[in-house]
Amino acid sequence: MTVTCFGELLLRLTPPGSQLMVQADSLELHPGGAEGNVAVALASLSHAVRFAGLVSDNPLGDRVVTALRGAGVDTQFLSRAPGRMGLYFMEDGAGPRPSAITYDRAGSAFAEAEPAAIDFAGALQGARLFHTGGITPALGPKGVALAKAANAAAVAANVPICFDGNYRGALWSSWDCDPGAVLRELVADATILIGNHRDISLLLGQTFSDDGPDRRREAAEAAFAAFPRLELIASTARHLVTSDHHRISARVDSRTAAHQTAEIDVTGIVERIGTGDAFAAGVLHAWLAGGDVATMAETGLALTALKHTVPGDMCLVNRATLESFSANGGDVRR
User: What are phi and psi of 161, to 5 degrees?
Assistant: First the structure.
């Protein structure tokens, strides 16, 4: 069963050792991008994965392509074009200081691409699932056109769509748009939504009055009523104690059932970036195997917890490590 992922691939530049940018004399480079992170995580769990998209035809583009291929992702539908790679800079948080991100991705080769530059039909041939999300349309009118073309190709190919809301306010606010209206049209095509009650509030323009699990179920039922194709909603809840100690739970709702996990402590965090993408990959890993809502929620939580221990944007955890996960950690495996 092949999964096709689509979105913008990026390079991240980070000062070493939790330095501020004003202190930095060097920067560490990490390939990333939300949908690319999901592709790598699923490939690391032994799924067949293709990536559709477009990157710069230069050494920076080569670096990202090499990362995907090295993880086992099929890149034959990853187009190349002149132009710049999208970048972002991150200062790692420490203690009470949160991490901070600065985007430098305007006018990237991907953001300027026309839909015809990407062979969506070829990338979706024989696919079991199509994974995409809300970052591409946040890039501007051309991003919206790309996202709509991708969804239309998946619908035409009768391939279920997993849509991760991945709301990025800094990107949406950089151009004149109505994010809720754009995202509603795209989510209407989806079978699976990765998003919480706040994402659903944005989509539907309404608030939900209950608290905790009741509010999440109320939001899920509203989304199911608004989007007839939608079958599953998955989300996490995160409480920050310090920059390296978070408490996380996960939830999956279907039209007829729901499961919310217990909250677990994730301590000694070495990486925050990509953990939401790992959650999405864990949920999809269980969904592809026919798991129920409880299995999907617990698997998603396990993979997101493990990703906090892996430096870089991409989750390279294999199936054996996932299956042996314990929230309490453990001794060296020999």
Answer: -110, 130
Beta-sheet pairing, 258-260 with 245-254:
antiparallel
| Integer-rounded Cα radius of gyration of the chain | 19
Kindly report, residue by residue over 251-266, the tens digit of the pLDDT: 999 999 999 999 999 9
The CA-atom distances, in angstroms, between 189 and each of 99, 134, 149, 199 are 34, 13, 12, 16
Q: Which residues contact 218 (CB under 8 A, 6 or more apart)?
A: 197, 208, 209, 210
- 2-233: CATH number: 3.40.1190.20
| Residue with tokens 């539907």, as numbered in its chain | 204
Q: Which sequence spans correspond to the domains of the chain?
A: 2-233
CB atoms within 10 A of CB 251: 24
Number of H helices, E strands in the chain: 12, 14
pLDDT digits (tens, 9 = 90+) for 125-151: 999 999 999 999 999 999 999 999 999
The answer to whether residue 219 scores a pLDDT higher than 50 is yes
